[in-house]
Each structure stands twice: as structure tokens, then as C-alpha cells.
Amino acid sequence: MSALEIKDTDISYAENILINGMKFDDERIDFIANFNTLDLQSVPGSGKTTALLAKLVILDRYMPFNEDKGVVVISHTNAAVNEWKRKLGGFCPKLFSYPNFIGTIQSFANNYFAKPYMQIIYKIESFRVDDEDFSNNLLNQYYKIRYSNEYDKIATFFWGRNIAKAKKIASETGEREKAVCERLIDEEIKKLYYNFNDEKFYVKGIKKCLISDRKNPKYQGLKAIFDSVFRSGVISFHYAYVFSLKFLDLNPLVVKDLCRRFKFAFVDEMQDMCIFRSIPISHFGIIRSPISV
Q1: What is the pTM for the complete model shown?
Q2: Which residue from 146, 160, 151, 159 is spatially nearest to 221, judged by alpha carbons?
Q3: 3-state SS of the chain?
Q4: Using CA atoms, how far apart are residues 160 and 45, in angstroms rounded to an integer?
Q5: What is the arithmetic mean of pLDDT over 173-189?
Q6: For residues 214 and 106, what is the distance between their CA atoms, to the nearest angstrom?
Q7: Digit-coded pLDDT (tens) for 191-205
Q8: In terms of C-beta distances under 8 Å and separation of at least 24 residues, what long-range contacts does 65-69 make, across chains too?
Q9: Distance between CA atoms of residues 286 and 58, nearest Å
Q10: How far is the C-alpha of 262 from the C-alpha of 285, rounded, in Å?
Q11: Closest Cα to residue 243, out of 115, 111, 74?
């Protein structure tokens, strides 16, 4: 619960900035002045975003908070964040600087969870989150070991999986079977997925496990591929969240650190952000809008 009390002058200040001096109705004023933990459920066009921005405009007037705490404001998209900055940047200079965080859920997860996990596990200081680069790096690492005896010539395994389909395509298109099969293998390698929970390999879109025996040289080859890509500092968006949750398991005290850093948190579309389900958000004053119809 917050001791912050919003005055009529604060509401008027926000009205002048955001709605050209018009007046917020009582329902919106109640929301703007409420800094307890709550869910806001609303439909598009109801003024939810404007009410949230009004909160932020007012909070900026009261910064810095005790113990130099800040606020964290999270959305799904960069477009939303840029819009907030466009509307508020000229009026809220303190809001967009330390100790506050305004950004996407992806950037929040990357900065506070995935980054320290990769520093600890993979010994790298920086990384890049890019699905296409990650897939291409998987393929490049596969090329390096595909005929290695150490991994039982893993290329033969993928050839066997794809040759029948390649023959069918080749008969229909007139292409060479070898070229078609190699293309199918490349596509499959780029769709490989390592599940950290069950420690098995899959191809995206296929439920059946690809390889599960950790003693199998082919399994070890795939594991070497993924480890090499992770250590190179390239991960997919999905693995950024995987590593974020693994870091929370590895270091649950980080939640207390976040609570010391941020006095309030504002989260848009909360129901889609599974990472926050691992954080006891009652420690913050949380304003979230979980329903969009």
C-alpha cells in the first residue's frame, strides 16, 4: 500500500497535459489516485492508456521517492513505449531516467534476468536476441560437426529422416534428390528446439521427441551445437524468457532486489506475461490491465 496522496492540483496538471484541460470523470480520477495493487479491466478506446499516463505524469512530480526507489512501466511492444515517451518525455524528465525503467517485457526480462543468467552459465557479458540469427547460427554449428565421428556422423540421422520426403518432392519438381534432402535438413536444423525442462530435443511444430538419450552421440552433438550458439551470445526470444525463469529459480533473491529498486510497477496485458507469475507482485503497487476485448 502506498502513502502517496494525489491532490486536485495533480489531477488538473495531468488534465492540462493529456486532455487539453478537459476533465477526467470520477471513475478515471478514482483509478488515477489509487496506488494500491489492482487490476484494471477495460475495452479498447476506454481511456485506459490515458489514465495510466496521468498516473505517470503525477508520479514524476513526486520523484525521487524515499530510498531512491523508482517505477517500472512495462508494455508488450516498442511502439507503445515510444508513444509513451513521445507524449510524456517533455513533461516527465525524471520518469525516463534511473532508477526508473520504461520498456517492453522483453527488454525487462533481458536486462534483469536473462543477462545475469548468461553471464553466470555461459560466461558472456553481452548477448543479442534475434530469432533469425539464432536459427542461422544453429545451422552454421551443425555444418561444423555433421560428419564428425565423435557425434556418429549426425548428418546421416537427418538424411534418413528427410530422404523419403525429398524423393517425393524431387519426383514432382524435377530437382535432384540430394539437393532437396539437404534443403529439408537445413530447414529442420533451423527449427530445432532444446527443452530445458525435460532435457530433450524437438523440432518445432512436432510433438514427438527427436532425441532424448543423453548417452547417444547424436544427442551430444545437438547439445554441443546449442551450447556453442548460446556461448556465442545469440539467443532466440523464446530462450530469453527461458533463461529469465531459470535465473529466477537460480537466484530467487533477485525479487527482493527488484522490490528495493522499484516502488511501483505498471504492467500492460499482464495475463500474457508469464514471467511475472514467478514474482510476488504484491510487494509492488501494481497497476495492470489484463483484459483487452
Answers
A1: 0.82
A2: 151
A3: CCCCCCCHHHHHHHHHHHCCCCCCCHHHHHHHCCCCCEEEECCCCCCHHHHHHHHHHHHHHCCCCHHHCEEEEEECCHHHHHHHHHHHCCCCCCCCCCCCEEEEHHHHHHHHHHHHHHHHHCCCCCCEECHHHHHHHHHHHHHHHCCCHHHCCHHHHHHHHHHHHHHHHHHHHCCCHHHHHHHHHHHHHHCEEEECCCCEEEECCCCCCCECCCCCHHHHHHHHHHHHHHHCCEECHHHHHHHHHHHHHHCCCHHHHHHHHEEEEEEECHHHCHHHHHCCHHHCEEEEEEECC
A4: 55
A5: 97
A6: 32
A7: 999 999 999 999 999
A8: 65/263, 66/263, 67/260, 68/99, 69/99, 69/260, 69/261, 69/262, 69/263
A9: 16
A10: 9
A11: 115
Q: Fill in the amino acid letter for 221.
A: G
Using CB atoms within 10 A of its CB, is residue 289 exposed (0-12), middle (13-18) or buried (19+)?
buried
C-alpha cell at 23: 476533465
Residue pair 201/192 in contact by the 8 Å Cβ criterion: yes
**Is the pLDDT reported for residue 176 higher than 60?**
yes
Which residue in the block uniquely carries the three cell numbers 545437438? Answer: 222
Q: Rounded distance, CA 130 to CA 132, Å?
A: 6
Under 8 Å between Cβ of 84 and 76: no
95-97-101-102 Cα dihedral, nearest 10 degrees: 60
Q: What is the pLDDT of residues 139-167, one digit of tens each?
A: 999 999 999 999 999 999 999 999 999 99
C-alpha closest to that of 99 among 247, 287, 264: 264
**CA–CA separation, 180 vs 213, rounded Å?**
29
Chain Cα centroid distance, residue 122: 19
Q: What is the spatial distance between Cα 238 and Cα 275, in angstroms, rounded to a whole number?
A: 12
User: In this structure, which amino acid lies at residue 154?
Assistant: I
